[in-house]
Amino acid sequence: MSISRQNLSIVIVTIKSEKVIDECIKSIDKSIPVIVVENSNNKKFKNELESKYPNLKCILSMSNLGMGAGNNIGIKFAKTDYVLIINPDVQLESDTLNELYLGSKKISDFSIISPISSNPDFPNYGMFNKSKPEINQTPLKVDYVDGFAMLIDKRKFKNDIYFDENFFLYLENNDLCLRVKKDGGSIFVIPKSKIKHLGAKTIDEKFKKEIELSRNWHWVWSKFYFNKKHYGYLKAIKENLPTYISAVFKFLFYSLTKNDFKKKIYFNRASGFYNSLSGKTSWYRPNLED
């Protein structure tokens, strides 16, 4: 069975995404089911979206579960074999999906395929050994794709296990791709299929500082957890200890210079490392209350 409009759904995880979500949805073919998972209890947001877009269903998670857990809800809700996961700050081009359909027919088997970023300076794919694959007009086999746009074949995932929900933010897509590779699956990008990514625009700009603090905490937590999970505890320490030491010194420096925001950033980096090192969950959440 090949990908088509009849067996494809689109999943979008949102939180405070009111300023970008409409342009994203408008770029999607109206015949394709769209599942929005809103990581809150915002009934107004749900009602407004469902009234504007007949092909859309909005699910309220009731709390901020993170990208991976939110995507899992949408994937399991989808009735189709294929699910395209996108962020609310992306926009499809007029032929994005058609080129995905055509590209998939040139591949004998895959677990994940993806369009590529329309901005060549920010590729959304790569190899775990950091080599740079050459891109041309044919489907290209890669080790991972970024989570802002990835199409999965649900049938290739045993027991409906998709994203590791221990990740709140960052590296959940790398973890998924690495597990696919370890299980013998294949990941491809379709160079003729392009997608526009606005980048870091998912959440309203007024929460910029809260998001920056959250990113610094979770990047370090997730990096340690990812390395520990796949390569062992010692590898995780080796990869992350320099970041922790640097964060401690910078925290002390910005404490002395009374730069409170910078001080909080480096405190969060150190805290993310310590919490992941000690086996604690990715508990940190940004304050996104209006």
- Annotated CATH topology of the largest domain: Spore Coat Polysaccharide Biosynthesis Protein SpsA, Chain A
Structural class: alpha/beta
The assigned CATH architecture of the largest domain is Alpha-Beta Complex
What distance lies between the first and last C-alpha atoms, to the nearest angstrom?
46 Å
Overview of the molecule:
- It is a single chain.
- With 290 residues, the chain is an alpha/beta fold.
- It has eight helices and eleven strands.
- The protein has helices at residues 21-26, 43-52, 67-77, 96-104, 172-182, 208-231, 233-256, 260-277, and strands spanning 8-14, 34-38, 56-60, 82-86, 90-92, 112-117, 125-126, 140-142, 144-145, 149-153, 187-197.
- The strands form two sheets. Strands 1, 2, 3, 4, 5, 6, 8, 10 and 11 form a nine-stranded mixed β-sheet that branches.
